[in-house]
Amino acid sequence: MLVPGDADAATFDFTVDILSAAAGGWDFRGPYVHGKPGERFLYLTWGDHPPSAGFTMFRRAKLHLSPLDPALITRAAAEAHRLVARLALTDARGGPRCASVRPPDLAWTAEPTS
């Protein structure tokens, strides 16, 4: 999903499968999930998309999934619920948020889908 860099807000809605891990706890899968088991994460990617050319990445933010509280994942995995991440898209200097993003700059919640 492309969102202009100067937008007031951006919402990205996509599916991540939450699976029981072989060693207990949870694992994550899906087309937007990266990393090996126990080190899963999502990327938010910043880039240029001029009308005459394709997308060129210049920065990305890494949102870690594996360190999340298992109780939070259990609530998010319940029927009619979802896992939600909230973060500012800019850093303290006003540039695009990048590198690994962890609390308190990133807040995860389990919320009803309706």
Account of the 3D structure:
The protein has 114 residues and is mainly beta. It has one domain (17-112). It contains one helix and eight strands. It has one helix spanning 70-77, and strands at 17-20, 26-29, 33-34, 41-48, 56-64, 81-87, 99-101, 106-112. A hairpin with a 7-residue loop joins strand 4 and strand 5 (56-64). It is globular, with a radius of gyration of 15 Å. The mean pLDDT is 90.
Query: Could you give a short account of the major beta sheet?
Result: 4 strands, mixed
State the helical fraction. under 10%
* Pattern of helices and strands: EEEEEHEEE
Q: Give the count of helical stretches.
A: 1
What is the radius of gyration computed over CA atoms, rounded to a whole number of angstroms? 15 Å
State the main characteristics.
114 residues; mainly beta; four-stranded mixed β-sheet
Q: How is this fold's topology laid out?
A:
Elements: E1 17-20, E2 26-29, E3 33-34, E4 41-48, E5 56-64, H1 70-77, E6 81-87, E7 99-101, E8 106-112
Parallel strand pairs: 5-7
Antiparallel strand pairs: 1-2, 3-4, 4-5, 6-8
